[in-house]
Structure formats: C-alpha cells, structure tokens
Specification:
Blueprint: H1 2-8, E1 16-20, E2 22-24, H2 36-45, E3 49-50, H3 65-70, E4 75-77, E5 86-88, H4 106-116, E6 120-123, E7 129-131, H5 138-145, H6 147-168, H7 173-180
Parallel strand pairs: 1-6, 2-7
Antiparallel strand pairs: 1-5, 2-3, 4-6
C-alpha cells in the first residue's frame, strides 16, 4: 500500500510527508487488524484508541481521525503546534535535528522543518500503525523527574526556533507565535 501510494502521489517528484495514522492499545496481546474496517470495529469496541488521545491529544489531533474514518483518498492537513505524526518521506527530506535525542521534540521539530520547507502533509486513508504498551523509557522518566532535563529541552527548543527564523525568515514566525501562545 505504501509503495502504491508513493507512486500514485508522485512522491519522488513532490515535497510531501505521508502521514500514517497512529492508534494504540492498552493490551499487551493484540490480534493486529488486517484491514481498516477491522481497525474501525476495534476502535468502536474500545480495544483500540487514537494515539495518546488521553495524555497528549495535540500530538496527533491534526491527523483528523474523524475524517480518516471515511476517507478513501489521501487528504491534506495543516501543521499545528506540537504535531508529531509518523510519516513516510523521501530520503532527501530534512533529517531529524540531532539536538533532540532522548525524550521530547524529535518528531515535533522534524514536522516543523518539513512544514517550513513547504512539504504537503498528506494523511493516507488506508494506512495505520498500532503502538503497543511497554514500560516507560529511561528518558521519559528523566523528563518527568528532572527540572534540569526540562530546562535543557526548553533551551534547545528556543535555539531551534532561532535557527528556523534564520533559515526561513518571516515564514518561521508562525512557529514562534504558536509556541508562545501555548
């Protein structure tokens, strides 16, 4: 499906990030759905949820899961603050910013960079992934417990915004404005 989507959407000639909608389960064992219809049934029965809807809805809300339920064609979504979807992109797309290792802002900064470079954000209507439960990572524990860790991440975010402003000028102001309104 991904290969066909890449060809149909002419991804090799187009600046686009193909969004793979993310779901999650709280069960350690799950029979992976074989189709979108099966996934929707599991979602309706409560054995699956949209990814992190209960702890970080901003991260995936722009995917527009209500639209995805009935979509048959890829659809475009707009960047929003803290958007961190899973994407399929060309190999020559901007790389993840190496400042953001461990927990926090790796996917957010990547999507901001893609948006700044005017990549289309296209949701694939028949793709999905499911996050399985696992023990919290060492890095998220550090983030939650250490004011120093959170302070360092904030400093890195500010540096990243400055770098975007230098590279993209006035077009990058929307990222800083969005950050300050949070």
């Amino acid at each position: 499906y991904h290969r066909n989507s890449i060809q149909q959407l002419e991804l090799p000639q187009r600046k686009a990030a193909l969004i793979v909608p993310a779901f999650e389960t709280l069960h350690y064992r799950l029979t992976f759905p074989k189709s979108k219809a099966e996934l929707l049934s599991m979602l309706d029965m409560g054995s699956l949820y949209t990814f992190r809807y209960h702890v970080w809805p901003k991260g995936h809300a722009p995917t527009d899961y209500a639209k995805w339920r009935t979509a048959t064609m890829p659809y475009r979504v707009a960047w929003q603050p803290d958007f961190e979807p899973y994407v399929v992109v060309r190999r020559d797309c901007p790389k993840y910013d190496q400042r953001f290792v461990g927990f926090g802002w790796n996917k957010v900064s990547h999507i901001m960079e893609l948006d700044a470079q005017e990549y289309e954000l296209l949701v694939l209507p028949n793709a999905f992934m499911i996050h399985m439960p696992h023990a919290p990572s060492f890095d998220i524990s550090k983030f939650r417990l250490s004011a120093g860790y959170r302070g360092c991440l904030q400093t890195l975010r500010e540096e990243f915004h400055q770098d975007l402003s230098r590279r993209y000028g006035a077009a990058a102001l929307k990222y800083l404005t969005a950050e300050r309104s949070l």
